[in-house]
Design a protein that fits this description.
Layout (H helix, E strand, L loop, with lengths): L4 H10 L3 E5 H8 L7 H4 L8 E7 L4 E6 L2
Antiparallel strand pairs: 1-3, 2-3
């Protein structure tokens, strides 16, 4: 179980083809701030039927895309 499981489950339950979350929304879901380790953990998301589409540091958002 990784520190991002709560986020992966949240994204999976949303069941939208495209989900855009701010860093603040992710912090509220996880209880921790997103950090550089997210890049290593994002591979886990494919087990939940999604992938990370884009991480915007400027907008402070992450886009999640449903895998077809």
């Amino acid at each position: 179980m990784s520190k991002y499981n709560a986020l992966w489950e949240y994204v999976q339950k949303n069941d939208s083809p495209l989900i855009k979350l701010s860093f603040d929304e992710i912090h509220n879901i996880l209880g921790i701030k997103i950090d550089h380790s997210f890049l290593n953990y994002k591979k886990e998301l494919t087990q939940y039927g999604y992938q990370v589409g884009k991480i915007s540091l400027k907008e402070q958002t992450v886009i999640f895309k449903k895998i077809d």
